[in-house]
Amino acid sequence: MDNSVLQKLLHGHVLLKNDHNKFLKMFVPSSHIKTTDDGFSTNIPKSLMAKYLEFHAKRIQQSMKFYLPENTSENSLTGDEFKKLSQDLKMFLPFRSTFVQQECEIGITESQDTERLWNFMNADENYTQKDLKNIEDTLHGEHAVANIYLEDCGWVDDEEQPMFKGNISIWFKNDQVFFFDPNDYYFSYRNDDLAYTFWLPEDSPFYPYTDTRSDIDGGLYNSPSLNTFVSTIINIHTQLVLMLSYPQIANKQDVLGITPANATRVPFSTRFTNSEFLRKPKYEHKVLKLDLFGAGDTNGNSGTGESGSRAFHAVRKHIRQYSDGKISFVKAHFRGSKDVGLVTKDYEIINRSK
Fold it and tell me: Which residues touch 147 (CB under 8 Å, ≥6 apart)?
């Protein structure tokens, strides 16, 4: 877990109190949070923001924490594999309050046309591959750390599905800023292909400062950034549940540190400095990393199923789905003949001794 990013998030209320101008430069509101005429600072009263930031910091401190490192392209599930695994996935949270930090690449665009197209695609599923290509051509990836707070609401929606709420702040490493949204969005999943519904309650303290316009009463919000923020919450929640539900494809590491029970005994720093944060102890958390090259397999499938007519190469762990819907995992193995040749790839190495 990136403890430096976590400490900055936890101490946002300290920075707001000590240096308001620096806070405005580091905590940048997403475009669906209404701003003043200068387009920079929010209309949100300082006292309301300070109260929220301290409350948010305390609930993160007392939550169970997970860290999801960024996956390499080779060590990632294909779309077909993800679909197979998610067919019967039951969404849950391992703890009532859960904090997830994920390393990721975030697509950034300066094009208003791309923003309009993205908004159309979120509202209408009849888009084309050309539409996707047009978006990709205007994007550039930036390395980021998504910080997601998730909570089990303890009640169900009108379809008897469990309700959750989530909050997100995205740290961009190059710019050293948070793109933040103070709202807690409520959401639940549907039984068909992990579809979901979400909304921002009108009694939310930040509802008046959020762009909640919609062309249809009760329909999708118009704001592309709002929809993107929520879809990121959903995506990371899904990844967390997927790896917890299928330990055969995940490498788990427990990292010791401050426990949620003891978190309230750790005082916040009075200064907002990197040197101060480096001295802060780390929090207890679990690292979950997708591991498609591990040898673990619950079904004992070890044969190569192939003659020696191909070059010797590694085959990552993959999914086999039977006609009755049952899923098994074929463990990683080698195929082919060294006499034909040797195929090497730049795979990430996972140290299983840690």
Answer: 5, 6, 9, 99, 100, 101, 168, 169, 170, 171
Q: Are 168 and 25 in contact (CB under 8 A)?
A: no
Q: Is the pTM higher than 0.85?
A: no
Name the nearest CA neighbour of 144 among 181, 169, 176, 173. 173
Query: Which tokens is 261 given?
Result: 């029970």
Number of neighbours of residue 239 by Cβ within 10 angstroms: 20
Can you spell out the DSSP letters for 6-55?
Answer: HHHHHTHHHHHHH-HHHHHHHEEEPTTB-B-TTSSSBSS-HHHHHHHHHH
Find which of 8-22, 79-93, 95-109, 317-331 is predicted with most confidence, using mean pLDDT: 8-22
At residue 31, what are phi and psi to the nearest 5 degrees?
A: -65, -15
- Dig out the tokens for 9 from the structure: 């998030």
DSSP-derived 3-state class of residue 293: coil
What is d(CA 191, CA 105) in angstroms, rounded to the nearest whole number? 29
- What are 253's strand-pairing partners? 287
Give per-residue pLDDT as tens, 207-264.
999 999 888 877 788 888 888 899 899 989 999 998 898 888 888 899 999 999 888 8
Confidence of residue 120 (pLDDT cuts 50, 70, 90): low
- Give the distance, in angstroms, between the CA of residue 270 and the centroid of all CA atoms in the same chain: 30
